[in-house]
Amino acid sequence: MKRSTKRFSVLISIVIAALLLTTACSSNKASGGKDDKGTIKIGVLASLTGALESYGKQTKNGFEMGLDYATDGKREINGKKIKVVYEDTETKPEVAVKKATKLLEEDNVDFLVGSSSSADTLAVLPLAEEYKKIMIVEPAVADSITGADFNKYIFRTARNSSQDAVAGAAAIAKPGVKIATLAPDYAFGRDGVAAFKEAAEKLGAKVIREEYADPAATDFTSNIQKIINAKPDYLFVVWSGANSPWKQIADMKVQDKGIKISTGAPDIAALSTMEPLVGMEGFSVYYYDLPNNKINEWLVSENKKRFNGEVPDLFTPGGMSAAISIVEALKKTDGNADSDKLIKTMEGMSFDTPKGKMTFRKEDHQALQSMYAIKLEKKDRVPYPVPVLIRELSPDETAPPIRVKK
Questions:
Q1: Are the C-beta atoms of residues 259 and 232 closer than 8 Å to each other?
Q2: Residues in CB range of 157: below 8 A, 6 or more apart
Q3: Is the separation of the CB atoms in 118 and 191 below 8 Å?
Q4: Mean pLDDT taken over the chain
């Protein structure tokens, strides 16, 4: 009899312990992923392998440095520790959704950040709304992220495609200037040209010829000859991919015919392919010695210190800006990660970044930011054409149209 009573007592103890554990887990999930010590969790989605691996790693490096910079190396806000969980999307939308769901359901993150690909990011946007979690978009550029597919939980520190187009136009468009365009014949190219044309014609220029080439083309002779025949003052090129038209543009001596070439300066690896375009005027999202501010000086110095003397590349400052935006918002809420409170705090919020001051526009949560009118020049002991500053394009100059559905 005593043995049965003892067994019954043990069973009751096990049941009570299980109930307490279940209650604690449920409480932890309901609290938005913060443990008893008050941890704030951030889930970062990035292409850490595959074709966009360099973009993802730059974003990750920048995010890590941004957290350290914004918290003075402590990685805590109002006594709450910051924990970051990274997930590789492999640049596949279905993988991005799976990884984001894992971050939201298993890791119970308070924020999402990402991703390297616009397709990955667009696939994840509905999850941010479903789980009511803030998502900082970096570095994906598709206009629809803060346009047709926007929801109130989305904030973007990355620039969008229209900002690129506005910056490209601001660099070369003036009253009376005639411009031709060359782009791949699919949505990326046609949308880019449409945004550029809208911005350029607002500044008084005229787009007199639009040429679209097969994205897989290796021979651009016909397209380039039609552009030469149109006799524009500038040729503005929207392109992405290894089969670029730069060599043929140089071989057909387009610049010798009085037509200036213009485009966006890419990351350092791609700059190495632009040797034929030395002397070109265009725009840059970021090159490490273009911004003149203390945060960028810190970033350049810290990047060299952490990564064997390497300078930050195109997407590093974006990762840093995303981290800074989260920390600054949490400072204003005293560490409260409630999404509704954060939305009210972040709408219209300005914060300092390696690119200067950014502001989340209230209407679409797009960060307004500086970009740079540049000229490609050769420099001693630099194995690629270097973007040299002509002038900084202000956040007001590069502000894109508001495209949110009403």
A1: yes
A2: 136, 137, 138, 318, 321, 322, 325, 353, 358, 367
A3: no
A4: 90
